Amino acid sequence: MTIDEKDLLNSILASLNRIDYIKPEDIPNIDLYMDQVTTFMNKELAETRRYPDDKILTKTMINNYTKNNLLPAPDRKKYTKEHLLTLIFIYYFKGILSIHDIQHLLNPITDRYFPKRESGSDCHL
Predict the structure, then answer these.
(1) Mean predicted confidence (pLDDT) in 57-64
(2) Are 86 and 66 in contact (CB under 8 A)?
(3) Cys-Cys link to 49, which of 54, 69, 83, 111 (CB 3.0-4.6 A)?
């Protein structure tokens, strides 16, 4: 039995088209407070939950990501589009990588796209 490569490729492409993901244009262009971030993520990624009661993202998760330097701190308690993109990466990566590995992957990105804070700056959660 031989596998038709064209049929296999078409099958893979059809499967990829069915994957639910957040498109960049769906991310709000305004900064969001934490409750708005969790609501947005839980709504947009609802189809990826294993069980209906599973939470995609919680306040505790966000705070832990920030404490562990996976996610830069919000600016005046507001999260930017870049924060949301980083959270989406974390969400998808945490299913296949350790937190340490995710941090290693994301550090060059967060170093480039998030401004460094002065030691006396106001970065409270």
Answers:
(1) 96
(2) no
(3) 54
Confidence of residue 20 (pLDDT cuts 50, 70, 90): low
- CA 26 to chain centroid, in Å, comes to 13
- Compute the half-sphere exposure of residue 30: CA atoms within 13 Å on the CB side of its CA: 4
As a whole number of Å, the end-to-end CA separation of the chain is 60
- Within 46-80, residue ranges assigned H as helices are 59-67
- Altogether, the residues listed in the chain come to a count of 125
Q: How far is residue 80's CA from residue 103's CA, in Å, rounded to a whole number?
A: 19
pTM: 0.76
- The DSSP line for 6-38 is HHHHHHHHHHHHT-----GGGS-SS-B-HHHHH
Please tell me the distance from the alpha carbon of residue 79 to that of residue 87, in angstroms, as a whole number: 10
